[in-house]
Amino acid sequence: YLTTIFIIGAVGIKFKTEKKIFILLILTSAMPLLINGPFMPWYALSDQSKYLRNTMILRDFDTCLGDCYVRGEEEKDTRIHMVLSAYLWALSPMPFIENYNSIGLINRLYLSLMIIFIATQKNSKFFIYFLILSPSLLLYSSAALRESFIVITTMLTLYCLLKKRYYLLWLPLLFLLFTKIQNGVLVLLMSLAYLYIYTIHSRISKSSKLKYSTNILIIVTATILFIAYGPILLNAINIFANSFGVEAARNSLDAKGSLGIVVYGNFFEVIIKLPIKLLAFFISPFPEIVSPIKAVFFLENLFIILLLIINFIRLYKKHLQQFY
Q1: Where would a tag sit more exposed on the chain, N or C end, judged by fewer CB atoms within 10 A?
Q2: H-type alpha helices, 98-134
Q3: What is the mean pLDDT of the chain?
Q4: How many CB atoms lie within 10 A of CB 252?
Q5: Which phi and psi angles does 121 have, rounded to 5°?
Q6: How far is CA 247 from the centre of its chain?
Q7: Are 160 and 172 in contact, with CB atoms under 8 Å apart?
Q8: Cis, peptide link before residue 38, omega less than 30° from 0
Q9: In angstroms, rounded to a whole number, what is the distance separating the alpha carbons of residues 16 and 231?
Q10: Cα–Cα distance for residue pair 87/172, rounded to 1 Å
């Protein structure tokens, strides 16, 4: 904990971080000491054990990746997101990594440094305070999980995109794709759409023939790719839907209930069910609000939805082109 405070303090002073933000970062950096202890048991987030085991193995200079299972040693999970996360924790300046709280402190350190960087870019103070005090982000960034890396790489990708640092954009985007592919694909599609609308399209808009030719080429290419890889994409959607269904069933009140297996026969079914799935995602964990923590998460989700609606309305009224 002292190492975390020292690094946050040194970097915060170096970049002249605002006093209130600086104090909040120091205070919230202690959250990992409360998670996996007074606030909740470690097995409430069971994946922590896999991340901790991987990181401790790397700290012992055992760098085997794919051959662990071949040798009959099942102590290490070799999935790519597990390995990448473990390397970032193992290479941190933290002197000792012996329990879940150690990784939680590293996560808070990384996220705090990212927030300090954002604060130097003259972003909205409300956005910065939300990143610091968001209940869900406080919880998951204080546990031995990869969520901090997902948030950080997403923000870095969007920063590079908005600042037109395209040569740097692909590094955090690739890490995001390997760490959590569904988030990575979403950010990738957003990035491609942004690049086309605000870079490529704006340059060719003066020539109507070139603009229409480019649009037709994109549509034809997308159609060919959809026909060629549509079955693979549908299979991937089914895999993700089933994994989320199984996880939801395990966390539900009725542990003996259905595992929530979903099979989409075609993309029309996906489109039809998408609004309901999105609504369920945004209002989760409703209706299973069985603890104060879940109640806080539910209220936070409602708050985020309200903010999105307000900002979209403002964008629609003032910048119609950017809204579309």
Answers
A1: C
A2: 100-119, 125-133
A3: 79
A4: 16
A5: -95, 10
A6: 18
A7: yes
A8: no
A9: 53
A10: 15
> 282: which 2 tokens?
């945004």
The string of pLDDT tens digits covering residues 1-52 is 889 999 999 999 999 889 999 999 999 999 988 887 777 777 777 788 888 8
Residues 238, 262 contacting (CB under 8 angstroms): yes
Per-residue confidence (pLDDT) for residue 322, from 0 to 100: 57
Q: What is residue 196's DSSP assignment?
A: I
Whose tokens are 């996906």? That residue is 270
For residue 231, cis peptide bond before it (omega within 30 degrees of 0): no
Q: Residue 45, Cα to own-chain centre: how many angstroms?
A: 17
Tell me which amino acid residue 179 is: T
The answer to whether the beta carbons of residues 81 and 179 sit under 8 Å apart is: yes
| Nearest C-alpha neighbor of 86 from the set 48, 54, 110 | 54
Angular region, 132: left φ>0, alpha ψ -120 to 50, beta rest: alpha
Q: Are 177 and 184 in contact (CB under 8 A)?
A: yes
Residue 32 one-letter amino acid: P
Task: Answer whether 194's CB lies under 8 Å from 161's CB.
Answer: yes
Overall size of the chain counted in residues: 324
How far apart are the C-alpha atoms of 62 and 80, rounded to whole Å?
Answer: 16
DSSP assignment letter at 44: G
Structure tokens at 174: 């690739």
Choose among 231, 161, 233: nearest CA to 195.
161
Q: Which residues of the chain have pLDDT under 70?
A: 62-78, 201-209, 211, 243-262, 281-282, 284-292, 319-324
Please list, residue by residue across 124-148, b when 16 or more beta carbons sit within 10 angstroms of its beta carbon and e when fewer do.
eeeebeebbebeebbbbbbbbbbbb
Q: Give the pLDDT confidence score for residue 107 in this predicted structure.
A: 94
Question: What's the token pair of residue 275?
Answer: 């609004």
Residue with tokens 């904990």: 1
Residue 181: enclosing H or E segment and its boundaries?
helix 181-195
Angle between the N-to-C axes of helices 100-119 and 125-133, in degrees from 0 to 180, rounded to the nearest 10: 180
Residue 175 CB contacts under 8 Å (≥ 6 apart), including other chains: 84, 149, 153
